[in-house]
User: Which sequence fits this backbone?
């Protein structure tokens, strides 16, 4: 909370003191999720809407060559002092493909970029989600893959990277070796009735 005292005075030496208070908005990254591609648009959705059937659970095995959608849920309390921004460094296991449906006007990035950014403008008392499509590379090594998003406001700063006070959320998944299936037994049946 900022408190300021305003004093004005006119020609007749009368003055007016008027105290007022402004409340700075709080910007928070609520959660980071990975979804299977093909789910409904996400812009403007409420964070309590359930889409659990499309979520790839944390630490779940990922399929090479498949497209996924990263979603970032954001909450703004009061009014943001400037544009709300998202900075997402995509893990090298993935390649950026495109914004998710409904997020196109907010997301900046070119195919293959390692960084995706979004500018959501000034927000007030809102919870929403944005998304973008990535593809798990075919030649990715076995191991854990963590994606982190940072949500912040910067006033009039022209800095290209988020400030130290950015709100952070992340999610980790597992890349497993490619599976192999082999036939271990074959049977023949006769006398079908």
Assistant:
């Amino acid at each position: 909370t900022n408190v300021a005292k305003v004093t004005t005075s006119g020609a007749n030496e009368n003055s007016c003191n008027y105290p007022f208070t402004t409340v700075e908005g709080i910007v928070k990254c609520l959660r980071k999720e990975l979804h299977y591609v093909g789910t409904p648009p996400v812009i403007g959705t409420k964070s309590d809407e359930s889409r659990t059937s499309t979520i790839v659970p944390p630490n779940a095995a990922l399929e090479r060559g498949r497209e996924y959608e990263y979603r970032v849920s954001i909450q703004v309390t009061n009014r943001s002092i400037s544009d709300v921004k998202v900075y997402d460094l995509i893990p090298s296991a993935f390649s950026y493909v495109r914004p998710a449906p409904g997020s196109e006007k907010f997301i900046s990035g070119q195919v293959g970029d390692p960084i995706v950014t979004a500018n959501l403008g000034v927000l007030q008392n809102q919870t929403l989600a944005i998304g973008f499509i990535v593809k798990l590379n075919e030649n990715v090594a076995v191991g854990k893959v963590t994606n982190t998003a940072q949500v912040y406001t910067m006033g009039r700063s022209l800095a290209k990277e988020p400030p130290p006070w950015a709100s952070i959320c992340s999610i980790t998944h597992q890349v497993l070796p490619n599976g192999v299936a082999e036939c271990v037994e074959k049977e023949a049946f006769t006398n079908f009735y």
Observations:
- The two ends are 82 Å apart (CA to CA).
- The chain has no helices and twelve strands.
- Residues 1 and 164 are 21 Å apart (CA to CA).
- The first strand starts at residue 2 and ends at 9.
